[in-house]
Amino acid sequence: MEQKIALITGATSGIGKACALILAKNGYDIIATGRRTDRLEALKNEMPEGRKLLPLTFDVRDKEAVFKLLGNLPEPWKNIDILVNNAGNAHGLDPIQTGDTADWDAMIDINVKGLLYVSKAIIPTMCERKSGTIINIGSIAGKEVYPNGNVYCGSKHAVDAITQGMRIDLNPFGVKVIGIHPGLVETEFSLVRFKGDEERAEKIYQGYEPLLAQDIAEIVEFCVNRPPHVVLADIVVLPTAQASATLVNKNK
Ligand code: NDP
Ligand code: 8X3
Known about the structure:
Layout: E1 4-8, H1 14-25, E2 28-34, H2 37-44, E3 53-57, H3 63-71, E4 82-85, H4 101-129, E5 133-137, H5 150-169, E6 176-182, E7 185-186, H6 189-193, H7 198-203, E8 211-212, H8 213-224, E9 234-237
The structure holds NADPH dihydro-nicotinamide-adenine-dinucleotide phosphate and 2-hydroxyethylsulfonic acid (8X3).
2-hydroxyethylsulfonic acid binds next to loops.
């Protein structure tokens, strides 16, 4: 049987990890990336029987590392069928007038430029092979802007625009481009946004049933199992209790 390969960025946690596991269950060998090597190594032990995992530790902001590692993949890993651009986070939740420029740099550099670097390293082979699927994990924050979301929302609006641009430019090559835009998903996301403040992070997911990383992974699974002539171009997925970026029906 021909080897099928999926590369998932940010596979050490949350949505990325769930995507790696579900794609492995669907017969893909996995290239898993992130900065935390121990977690990537641990993921190897969770692979289903017969599936392989190649861990690659790099920061998506490090352009040189991205092109060095992804440009020199070992022979059996070169032809990537599915790229899930998932690595990303919010850093801070502050009004624009008091926002921290280090947070702004992180969000633009990781969520936008990191996604671009990884894509640029992978897309040429997809074009040559005239095949492949790119799934960009955007956000409801890429469809709406909410108070204090300023730069994070900007970064995710950019992901939405870049996704649309990729779909147009890669159309002649038969490469599928999919944008998935989740609302509130309980992961380490809020812990990162609030810089390790567990109490504040937990509160985000209290009083209603948030989405789980597995819910997003199951959508990825559905997307990649569509026949060749079908692409789910743009998907917004919310917890049932969430009606918009700012409207969540919480039990008081
Ligand atoms: P997590 O914090 O659980 O996971 C984030 C992942 O991104 C980790 O694996 C982390 O790996 C990786 N990552 C972060 N920064 C970098 C970096 N500089 N270089 C390489 N990898 C990096 O959050 P989620 O799973 O929730 O987030 C995944 C994606 O989903 C993000 O793009 C996020 O914006 C998006 N999203 C999340 C929502 C939510 O409510 N949770 C809703 C909508 C979208 P490591 O730290 O090991 O590098
Ligand atoms: C993550 C969801 O609402 O915190 O992108 O922006 S939200």
